[in-house]
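Researcher: Let's do a round of design. I'm pasting the structure tokens now; please hold your answer until I've finished.
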């Protein structure tokens, strides 16, 4: 059976040997599902439009090409620190829920979440202050028609790890390896829905 991966096919990076060995097929959103397809790998934002069955859900931040290395650095360092994330671009509010879900898998369930939103014309600013035990997280989103960008920083004890897509030719890419490895069963991704309800109730500043 083929592993059918739905998403932005121009963004998903994969070595040709992986496509052969895993028998994986990349398919643009809205494409037809081939007969005898195996598990379907779909982005969290469209998972609800697929019927129940062998559907696996992947989350934007978790499958970014750089993210595996960053998680290794975070888990290999101190248990306390500050995590900062900044996104800019034509995002939907659901991306914040997706990021919270991914971060809870690294730092544990949040003890406290504070949300603020502000809109100036066509530009929306959203901030989430989140405490995961000894980790404070500052998540900042500027939603507009500007090109998509992502910055991530982890400041631990004697340890700073940074990623800025501007330093990677300005391109955000997904790793097919990480999609196949880290996609969740739909039932396991249930907490995403709870975070989605949380962010939709954000406070206007």
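Researcher: That's everything. Go ahead.
Model: Designed sequence:
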């Amino acid at each position: 059976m083929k592993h059918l991966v739905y998403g932005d096919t121009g963004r998903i990076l994969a070595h040709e040997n992986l496509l052969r060995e895993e028998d994986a097929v990349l398919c643009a959103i809205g494409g037809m599902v081939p007969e005898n397809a195996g598990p379907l790998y779909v982005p969290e934002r469209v998972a609800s439009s697929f019927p129940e069955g062998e559907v696996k859900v992947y989350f934007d931040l978790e499958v970014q090409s750089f993210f595996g290395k960053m998680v290794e650095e975070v888990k290999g360092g101190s248990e306390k620190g500050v995590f900062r994330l900044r996104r800019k671009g034509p995002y939907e509010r659901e991306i914040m829920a997706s990021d919270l879900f991914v971060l809870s898998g690294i730092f544990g369930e949040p003890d406290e979440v504070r949300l603020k939103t502000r809109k100036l014309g066509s530009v929306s600013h959203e901030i989430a202050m989140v405490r995961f035990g000894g980790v404070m997280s500052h998540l900042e989103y500027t939603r507009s028609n500007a090109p998509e960008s992502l910055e991530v920083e982890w400041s631990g004890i004697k340890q700073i790890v940074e990623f800025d897509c501007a330093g990677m030719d300005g391109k955000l890419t997904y790793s097919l390896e990480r999609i196949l490895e880290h996609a969740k069963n739909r039932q396991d991704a249930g907490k995403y829905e709870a975070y989605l309800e949380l962010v939709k109730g954000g406070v206007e500043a």
